[in-house]
Specification:
about 30% strand; alpha+beta; about 45% helix; two-stranded antiparallel ribbon; 3-stranded antiparallel β-sheet; 3 helices; about 100 residues
């Protein structure tokens, strides 16, 4: 699994291979950060669909009863929003190659 730093390095290499050399590692890091920020805002607002990659959308999780695994005590888990991801066909195909 890649972390953000490894992703930035991979994006730098990918851009260089396509003829665009970032001025610095920091510039590539800002680019990746900006993309992530915009993705988060789009998902929060109305969802995000990236054709071929997948769809991110928010769903409401209802309040429900759960059990504390340490104590076995019953507890109420409050309602909250969660992010659901549905992969696109191109991503599914790439993973299954």
């Amino acid at each position: 699994m890649k972390n953000k730093s490894e992703l930035v390095k991979a994006v730098e290499k990918n851009l260089e291979a396509k003829g665009f050399k970032p001025e610095s590692h920091a510039q590539a890091e800002r680019f990746v950060g900006a993309v992530i920020e915009e993705m988060v805002e789009a998902i929060k607002d109305d969802g995000l669909m990236l054709i071929g990659f997948g769809t991110f959308k928010t769903v409401e999780r209802a309040a429900h009863m759960g059990t504390n695994p340490s104590t076995g005590e019953k507890m109420e888990i409050p309602a909250k929003m969660a992010v659901k991801f549905s992969p696109g066909q191109a991503l599914k195909d790439a993973v299954n190659e």
